[in-house]
Amino acid sequence: MTCVIVEDEPLARNLLEKYVAKVPHLELLRSFADPLEALSFLRDSPVDILFSDIQMPELTGISLLKILPPRPTGLAGLSKPIIILTTAYSEYAIEGYELDVTDYLLKPITFDRFLKSVEKAGQRLVSVSLNDRESSPITPFVEQNRNAPLDAVVERSRNVIFVKDGSKLVKIRLADIQYIEGLKDYVSIFTPEKKVVTLQTMKNLEAQLPENQFIRIHNSYIVNFDWVDVIHREQVQIGKTMLPVSDTYRKAFREFVERRQGL
To answer: What is the DSSP letter of 198?
Structure first.
C-alpha cells in the first residue's frame, strides 16, 4: 500500500516516517511539511493512504480533505485515498469522520496504535478491491465479514484462509493447518509443507477459524484437532511435535474432545 504523509511538525513527521518504514506492506511515496505542495502531488499521483495532520499553516488538514480532487486511482481503484488524520486535539474527530475519514490518531502516537490504524485502512482497501472483482469467490464472504482483519480473510465455502505474508496474501487450506503458534503481534501457521508468519494477533486469527475444527490449548497455541495424533495429560502430539496444554485451557480442551468424540 502506498502512502503520503502531510505533517508540518518535523518531530511528528519523522516519527510517522519511522513507523511507515517498520511496516513491510507500506511504501512511503512522499512526505510533506507544506500541505499545498502535498495537494499538488496528490492531484496527479495514485496514493492508497493519506496521513494528514489537522492543524497546519496556510491550509488545515480538514480543508485539504474538502478540496482534494479525484485523481488516478491506487491499489483498490478509489478516486481518493484512504484518510487517516493525526492531531493533538480530539475535538476535531467528529468533523473528520463526517468527511469519511477511516481513522483518527491522537498525538502522541504509539506504534501499536499506528499499526491498528494501518490494518483498518488495509482492510478497507482489500474489501473495496475484492468487491470490485465480481467473479472473485471471496467477495460474498467479504460482504458478510467486513470487520474481519486484513491479515485473515476466510472464505468458508472453499475452506481456505488468506493471510498476509510480507507484501502478499497467501492462500492456505484450513485442512492443511496443523497448528498455529503466537508470539506477541505475530503468528506462525504450520502446515506439512511450509510455515507462514503473519503480522496479527492470535485472537483475531482464532475468531476466523471453524470452532468444530480448531481449539486453543495455550496462550501461544491453537491446534487443528484433525492433526492431533496423541493426547497426553499436559500435552498434545502432532507428528513429532509436542505442544503444551495450559491449565487455563485444559477444561475447554477436554470438553472439546468429548464433543468431537460424540460426532
So the answer is: E
Residue pair 10/33 in contact (Cβ under 8 Å)? The answer is yes
The C-alpha atoms of residue 62 and residue 150 are separated, in whole angstroms, by 27
Does a cis peptide bond (omega within 30 degrees of 0) precede residue 108?
Answer: yes
pLDDT of 58: 66
CB 25 within 8 A of CB 166: yes
Reading the block at residue 69, the C-alpha cell is: 480532487
Question: Hey, what's the cell of 159?
Answer: 475452506
Quote the cell numbers at residue 263. Answer: 460426532
Residue 66, C-alpha cell as written in the block: 474538502
Band of pLDDT at residue 230, cut at 50, 70 and 90: very high
| Rounded-to-5 percentages of helix, strand, coil across the chain | 35, 30, 35
Q: Write the CB contacts of 212 (distance below 8 Å, at least 6 apart in sequence).
A: 259, 260, 263
- Span 67-106, pLDDT tens digits: 676 654 444 455 578 889 888 766 554 444 455 678 888 8
Nearest residue to 249 via CA among 234, 229, 260: 234
Interacting residues of 129 by C-beta distance below 8 A, sequence separation 6+? 75, 76, 77
CA distance 165 to 119: 14
In 24-116, the DSSP E strands lie at: 27-32, 49-53, 82-87, 103-106
Q: Which three cell numbers stand for residue 99?
A: 468527511
Q: Give the amino acid at 76.
A: A
pLDDT of residue 166: 66
- What the block records as the C-alpha cell of 257 is 474432545
Residue 246 burial by CB count (10 A; 0-12/13-18/19+): exposed, middle or buried?
middle
Cα dihedral 7→12→16→18 (10° resolution) = 130
Phi–psi pair at 97, nearest 5 degrees: -65, -30
Cβ atoms of 40 and 26 closer than 8 Å: no
